Amino acid sequence: MSVDLRDPARPPGAGQTWVQVCSYTDLLPERGACVLVGSLQIALFRTFEGRLHAIGNRDPFSGAYVLARGIVGTRGEEPTVASPMHQQAFSLVTGECLDDPAVAVPVYPVRVADGVVEVGVA
């Protein structure tokens, strides 16, 4: 059985290859974790509500792979992560930088199947 815990506004991962990355219980609420999928570093986040989000781990402003270590929060109703380098906030739903809408990080589909977190990659 597969249960999709992503934000319902996020498009499904049709045409994706699903890669198992960790157990759902390995992810602590409101904390990030970095997983390596091929050559991609992906930052995973689990909200207090149990939703999962996956974005690219590279901070586009500093070039450092640190977003998984950022501060998780919200702006209005939007779940966000603030880069630990210069504190720019990124939407966990769209990947858009809320401080500079011209900048964004990749967003990946994520789901849980039998207690295992899977990330969709092309």
CATH first level: which class? Mainly Beta
| Share of residues in strands | 35-45%
**CATH architecture assignment name:** 3-layer Sandwich
N-to-C order of helices and strands: EEEEEEEEEEE
Mean pLDDT: 90
Total domain modules: 1
First-residue to last-residue Cα separation: 22 Å
Query: Would you tell me which CATH topology applies?
Result: Rieske Iron-sulfur Protein
Instruction: Identify the strand order in the major beta sheet.
Output: 1-10-11-2
Helix-strand makeup class: mainly beta
The protein's oligomeric status is single chain
Q: What is the C-alpha radius of gyration, as a whole number of Å?
A: 13 Å
Helix content: under 10%
Uncertain runs are 1-11
Give an overview in words.
Helices cover 0% and strands 43% of the residues. It starts with a strand and ends with a strand. It has one domain: Rieske [2Fe-2S] iron-sulphur domain (Rieske Iron-sulfur Protein), CATH 2.102.10. Mean pLDDT is 90; it is low at 1-11. The protein has a four-stranded antiparallel sheet with strand order 1-10-11-2, with no helix packed on it. β7 and β8 (89-91) form a beta hairpin. It has 122 residues and is mainly β. It has strands spanning 2-3, 17-23, 32-37, 40-46, 52-56, 71-75, 78-82, 89-91, 107-108, 110-113, 116-121. The protein is globular.
